């Protein structure tokens, strides 16, 4: 049911598929308009996302660097630092360059859109959007990011570096002596930190689909992997009733 408009913003129960509490993606929402923050935050939270808010461009940049969210949604017109400069700095920093940025803004001219996208923004949406459209665009960006991570040839997280081309992994100057199964297991977990994987999924990724191995054999591989990671082994977390996940940064 669609409720009444709020200055052009339409509130309605989101019919999109929601994320489970174990798999919530983190979204940083930056806008100095309290009403916009309230409506958009509620819509995204209804869809199952975890939302953090900032009301100033500089604070938003600091939050992006400290939180490393899965997505930044920002206005262009902001106090402290405008959204264009915010996007430029996020995309030019090694720590945040992979974080998708979506503009949700009153600046809707074609030139504004070209300027934003040329700075590396991943999407550009004019206010006021239909909330369900916004949620679908957010979900599309997050899927694209996950796929890019899976298809990458190199990954880095928590000081663990991996290179698929050479099937090598290391922490600092220490090379990790991993079996192929352990490498695939670690790669799968690092590519999507925070996402719980079932034992069956991990077996498929690590040893190929239609493997005849029993699901519980993954526990043996995880135990060995944790031992080889040393003090970082605790970052491979057990998710009760599901399987395992890599801790978020």
Description:
The two termini are 38 Å apart. The chain has helices at 34-46, 57-67, 83-92, 110-118, 131-151, 180-191, 199-207, 217-229, and strands at 5-6, 9-10, 26-30, 50-54, 71-74, 101-105, 123-126, 154-157, 160-163, 168-171, 174-175, 197-198, 236-239, 243-246. Strand 5 (71-74), helix 3 (83-92) and strand 6 (101-105) form a beta-alpha-beta unit. The strands form four sheets. The chain has a five-stranded parallel sheet, sandwiched between helices. The protein is an alpha/beta fold. It is elongated and about 55 Å long. Helix 2 (57-67) packs parallel to helix 3 and helix 6 (180-191) crosses helix 8.
> In the CATH scheme, what's the topology name of the largest domain?
Rossmann fold
What is the domain tally? Answer: 2
CATH-level-4 superfamily name of the largest domain: Response regulator
Secondary structure tally: strands: 14
Annotated CATH architecture of the largest domain: 3-Layer(aba) Sandwich
Strand order of the largest sheet: 4-3-5-6-7
Instruction: Kindly provide the name of the CATH class of the largest domain.
Output: Alpha Beta
Strand-residue fraction? 15-25%
Order of helices and strands: EEEHEHEHEHEHEEEEHEHHEE
Helix content: 25-40%
Low-confidence stretches: 1-16
């Amino acid at each position: 049911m669609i409720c009444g408009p709020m200055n052009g913003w339409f509130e309605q129960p989101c019919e999109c598929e929601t994320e489970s509490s174990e798999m919530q993606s983190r979204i940083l929402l930056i806008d100095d308009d309290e009403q916009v923050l309230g409506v958009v935050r509620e819509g995204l939270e209804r869809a199952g996302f975890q939302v953090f808010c900032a009301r100033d461009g500089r604070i938003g940049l600091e939050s992006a660097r400290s939180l490393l969210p899965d997505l930044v949604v920002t206005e262009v017109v902001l106090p402290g630092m405008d959204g264009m400069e915010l996007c430029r700095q996020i995309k030019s920093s090694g720590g945040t360059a992979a974080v998708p940025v979506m503009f949700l803004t009153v600046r809707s001219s074609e030139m504004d859109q070209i300027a934003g996208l040329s700075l590396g923004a991943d999407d550009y949406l004019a206010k006021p959007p239909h909330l369900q459209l916004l949620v679908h665009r957010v979900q599309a960006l997050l899927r694209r990011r996950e796929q890019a991570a899976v298809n990458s040839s190199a990954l880095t997280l928590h000081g663990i570096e991996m290179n698929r081309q050479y099937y090598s992994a290391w922490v600092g100057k220490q090379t990790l002596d991993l079996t192929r199964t352990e490498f695939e297991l670690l790669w799968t977990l690092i590519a999507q930190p925070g996402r719980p994987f079932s034992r069956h999924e991990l077996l498929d990724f690590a040893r190929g689909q239609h493997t005849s191995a029993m699901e519980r054999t993954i526990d043996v591989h995880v135990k060995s992997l944790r031992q080889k990671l040393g003090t970082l082994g605790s970052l491979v977390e057990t998710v009760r009733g599901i399987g395992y996940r890599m801790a978020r940064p």
